[in-house]
Amino acid sequence: MPTHNEHLPEGHKNEEIDTSLGYEASDVKITGILVFLIAMGIFVVVTAVTCYGIGKVLNAHLDKEDGPNSRWTKTVDVRQLGNLPSNAALQNKMAEITQTFPAPRVQVDDGNEDVADLHAREDILLDHYTWANQAKGQVRIPIERAMEIIAQRGLPVAPAAQTEPLMTGDSRPTVTMPLTDGFARTTFEQDEAEAHSKAVAANDAATQ
């Protein structure tokens, strides 16, 4: 019966395998594993130090660009506010913080309240007497009074414009009156006004 030793070249000695350890010792090289682990550790340390240094450089550059802290850049620790929905005092504190925050502030809704406030301020100017320049004695008058004065005195008439004869195929442009005065309440304000009217009507019906 042929054996593997018959295929070995001449001069090659058949090594005896030591099986007393219970495993193949010749295939395991601890040196390569240790070199890999040490290199990996060095890479991790160098990467961490590099990232930390880059962060410090960026923060220093941002601090230089932004300048020193002021009343507009003060830091508020919101963790001290706790659970806002269940604490009215903390809700008031948050409202104070948001009011002191410089404009423009982030809107908490779709902007409906801001538009309503804008129209309310406009209504105050349009419907009441207000100072335009108190030092010079200039006063804004309500728009209804302004319309009455214009109806009584009329508007200054502009001189007639000199027109040239039209060329062949041309026509004079005509200007039509607009269908609106250019101002309209938003849907949010209309809904608020309708809800207020219904509440007033219900209150009047209840009192009767």
Explain the overall architecture:
This protein is 47% helix and 3% strand. The protein is mainly alpha-helical. It is elongated, with a radius of gyration of 43 Å. The model has no long low-confidence stretch (mean pLDDT 76).
SSE arrangement:
Layout: H1 30-66, H2 88-100, H3 112-127, E1 130-133, E2 138-140, H4 143-153, H5 187-207
Antiparallel strand pairs: 1-2
Count of strand segments: 2
Low-confidence stretches: none
Succession of helices and strands: HHHEEHH
Termini separation? 123 Å
Q: Radius of gyration, rounded?
A: 43 Å
Structure annotation, total helices = 5
Oligomer: single chain
Largest sheet: 2 strands, antiparallel
- Helix and strand composition category: mainly alpha
Strand percentage: under 5%
Sheet with most strands: strand arrangement: 1-2
Mean pLDDT: 76
Helix proportion range: 40-55%
What general form does the structure show?
elongated
